[in-house]
């Protein structure tokens, strides 16, 4: 109750306060509220997770959605004030005596499904343990559960076979009635269907079921399987220098900040219908960074955490439907299935290509604003683009399509150290004094997460793992394999900085953005 009262008091205070003249005071007030709301969100998440009582879960979930929406509102005000997605929180954290915390790693859409199922399972086991009396009869409880599960599967199978029988019976009656009709009636029916299909060969998506569209999209690789990747798997440490950067600077985002931005603009709105409808609407998101920094992994993490479908509009896929009518048909199918089976993510890999070359690609670029205008606040559909060479695209239409632009940097020293240790142990390696992780973290400066993963998999083959008992791992093995890769040089990294990537003239064109909402200026 105290958390809810503090949230309501903050809303009343922020709405009744007059506009402050000093931007630093306004930023301090917003940053303080942002840090406090993050702590409130953490506490509500911890309270919501173990709850099984439906009324209590609904009450806490209502407060949880409200806090998430408020965090998104405050974040939007901070971005509009500083014209940056990254903010210096060191002074606020020291004043409040807090440590840097991020958003809960789980999407709101997956909480109801997994937590409720797990809670009910534990309740069933507790009831069986209490009825059996002694811990020694736990195996008997498991056997009773197995018998009950087999009985449930038998009833479900019987109901399924009954539905099949009734469907076959209905089809046979329909065929008998069709055969009883005269040839003239059958010809008239065929002519009607042929006329409708010929007069409206393309929108005839309207006559198809969601299942048939879903199957076609999957067969054409326009609907792809989501990899089971969590946002917490995108490893990264808070750089120590971030605590010293001054307010007003334009720093590059750290990996924890990238995780937080992805959770703010991707996972939270997609995972909660209430947050998506009431928070500032974000229809499109761009992840820009060198090859191998984990942009595709973040896309799959959004879908995993939010429980979303993943549609691929990568330029190589759109070539299967040439011409304007083909692209319109693809976009209509994705829009119809994505809205029906929301939440959904529409991913465009190498999105700079549709703004640089190719006739079919340029058609797609012209149709994307119309696609975004068709998305309403109730539609939990997010357009996510990834690019490794954003400077090859025409910046005008490029920035009008993507409302939020997140720069994904290469890993720093602390992150590289954690990556080497994690993946070596994950692949079966053993850490000894002959393997210097500090040396690997220093030598791999400029290399990406993808380089580290590739090197570890190249070195730790099945044969090398068998030899590890008599031949421990050495630092030189990984350094030799790392030397075969090209690092991300400073010149390339500077090209990704948003200030040099997107010219100043965009500030004048922002008001004429075709998305229905004003496009917020990126970092």
From TrEMBL:
<keyword id="KW-0547">Nucleotide-binding</keyword>
<dbReference type="InterPro" id="IPR027417">
    <property type="entry name" value="P-loop_NTPase"/>
</dbReference>
<feature type="domain" description="ATPase AAA-type core">
    <location>
        <begin position="285"/>
        <end position="393"/>
    </location>
</feature>
<dbReference type="InterPro" id="IPR003959">
    <property type="entry name" value="ATPase_AAA_core"/>
</dbReference>
<keyword id="KW-0067">ATP-binding</keyword>
<dbReference type="Pfam" id="PF00004">
    <property type="entry name" value="AAA"/>
</dbReference>
<dbReference type="GO" id="GO:0005524">
    <property type="term" value="F:ATP binding"/>
</dbReference>
<dbReference type="GO" id="GO:0016887">
    <property type="term" value="F:ATP hydrolysis activity"/>
</dbReference>
<protein>
    <recommendedName>
        <fullName>ATPase AAA-type core domain-containing protein</fullName>
    </recommendedName>
</protein>
<dbReference type="InterPro" id="IPR052267">
    <property type="entry name" value="N-DRC_Component"/>
</dbReference>
